[in-house]
């Protein structure tokens, strides 16, 4: 049937002695086109399937990672909550200790209250001398009261 079609087609195009050769050539071209089309369709189907498989593999890997990190995120949230509670307790304890120390100092006589160590005072006086000129230091009453007597002894 197909051969008859190509023979009829070839009969219209060429002389009788070339009809069979042209018919078989046309049949060969038709077979090549059909096989090429089938190969192209097969390649497209293969690539589509492969892309889907890759996408499924990536999605499965992402699910595994999410499952693996969910536990860590849960532990991390618990640790943050524990840290916040411990920080709040430490802050309250610190505030209570500061308030207790302030009340203790207020209860003492003025001369018995804690003062700054002499090394801290000397360091701060030295810093003032480096930061300001002699004229500016002469205008500072607190410097004159605290630091000037030290400067004379040095």
Q: What does this entry show, briefly?
A:
The chain is mainly alpha-helical and 154 residues long. It contains six helices and no strands. The mean pLDDT is 81.
Description:
There is one protein chain. Helix 1 (2-13) crosses helix 2. This protein has 154 residues and is an all-alpha fold. It has helices spanning 2-13, 19-107, 118-131, 134-139, 141-146, 148-153. The chain has two domains: 2-114; 115-154, no CATH class. It is rod-shaped and about 135 Å long.
Low-confidence stretches: none
Q: What is the strand content?
A: under 5%
Count of DSSP-assigned helices: 6
Order of helices and strands: HHHHHH
Shape: rod-shaped
Q: Biggest β-sheet, characterized?
A: none
Spatial separation of the terminal alpha carbons: 125 Å
Instruction: Supply the number of structural domains.
Output: 2
Radius of gyration: 49 Å
Q: Can you count the beta strands?
A: 0
Secondary structure class reads: mainly alpha
Mean pLDDT: 81
Helix content: over 70%
Keywords, please?
154 residues, mainly alpha, 2 domains, rod-shaped
Q: Which helices and strands, and how do they pair?
A:
Layout: H1 2-13, H2 19-107, H3 118-131, H4 134-139, H5 141-146, H6 148-153
